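U., I forgot to send this yesterday:
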Amino acid sequence: MDIHQLTPFLSVSPQITAADVGVAASKGFKAIICNRPEKESQDQPDLDEIREAAERHGLSWHYQPVVSGQITDADVVRFRELMNELKGPVLAFCRTGTRCSTLWALAEAPHLDADAILNTTAAAGYDLSAQRERIEQLSATTPTSPRAISKRHDVLIIGGGAAGQAVTGSLLKRRPDLDVAIIEPAQEHYYQPGWTLVGGGVFDRKQTLRAMSDVMPHQVKWYQAAAASFQPEQQLVVLEDGEQLGYRILIVAPGLTLDWDAIPGLRETLGRNGVTSNYRFDLAPYTWELVQTTRQGKALFTQPPMPIKCAGAPQKAMYLACDHWQRSGTLKDLDVEFCTAGAALFGVADYVPALMEYIDQYDINLSYQNTLIAVDGEQRLARFKVTHADGTTEEVEKSFDMLHVCPPQRAPRFISNSPLADAAGWVELNPETLQHSRYGDIFGLGDAGNTPNAKTAAAIRKQAPVVAENVLMVLDGKPPRAIYDGYGSCPLTVERGKIVLAEFGYGGKLLPSFPTWLVEGTRPSRLSWLLKEKMLPWIYWNAMLKGREWLARPEILHHRPAEHEAAAACDFADRK
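Result:
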């Protein structure tokens, strides 16, 4: 556990698990306060399990959820009341510990000097200098002072995942002395394309994980906090602790949110009762376990409505499972069904014939326009909304022995509730330049954008150089001229040792990277499997994240009408 003591009475911590509660009890804590709202992120442990563990160990449990970056006076009052009510020592936790520390700092403002409060939190590892003005305003004796000037960077990046790290690598490759900062609360970085192979028994999940500190470039300033809101007119981003960061250019790349709670009953049964998903690091090994142990009965594989990241992943899990069952001789005893909310097997028709050959080979039942809406893990029942050809719908229950779920997906709330979002909640971007449609000093890439491309790591590999080129052009007072063609790639693992390498751009245009005599993308290929298994992980860690742009150089338009160039330059100049 990562415990930070503020006072002998109160300590704070980043997110804890049920297993950590016993450690807390052994250290003498008598009460636990949770300041993190339930279901705030997809990787958040179940609060009921933590509460039950607290009760088992004799610790009192208190739930006071506080929204990141939006601590109200009422929140402060309630926290102060808890401190007065509880018998300590007390352990408070949230995502990083910042909200807990901020609550304490504001609650103590009427009693302690601002310097004493800020020195205490700093000693515990939390810099709350951005809260000085509010602390002093709450103090009964200390006059207020002007708010400290926000830190400002040439380029501020939201997100340290594949998109954020890739564009950082491309920027620093072009301009090594550029002032770049990344806002990212996570301590781990994942190679998510590898989770399909973990679920297929090819990779160990440890191969897909590295510490965030190992992939974060040493030249950048890393803010280990979450972004809470945007003030684009003032060129400011507000962090969860209230600190404001300024920028000349903002790059938004936070990824998307897997909405497990959109399907009632799903979260509660994940990882047991035969319910799994390769979309989570901790569950992919369970997929492989189920594939090995399921020898008869019903196996369901689901796909939700678009958009989702890696639209082929739900099928990949199914094909690898069927390949194993066929090789082991058990496929004949299994009823395999693919339940997709869509009306087609794959969005680009050129790749469907090859996929249909495997559908027939594995004797898979295709159920189009079947949307998973509820799961009863104990009874092993899945409920679907089925849309018929005439537009009518009905709900149908299907039993299962194994259920692989691809969850519904959406933009993060701090994006969808922000001025940067379009009507559907995604970052509103120009599909070619990846510049924000309304704010010329903001760019975006990756899964949170509204561009109509496949949401894949391969798309990010092509987007990152485009954004890097355009950001530097705008910083230099020039209009963006690098163009993204919508490239995305989906290596469809149709069997162990063969892949249909789907590569396409906007409008479903085929964009193969290799000549057809080497790789015929619309047909299964052993060379494509070698690319997926051996080459792409190495390329991800050692090229894509480090600004090496093999087969990813962007197209630069060298001619543009003078009036457009002047208008773009003036727009940015007005905002500098």
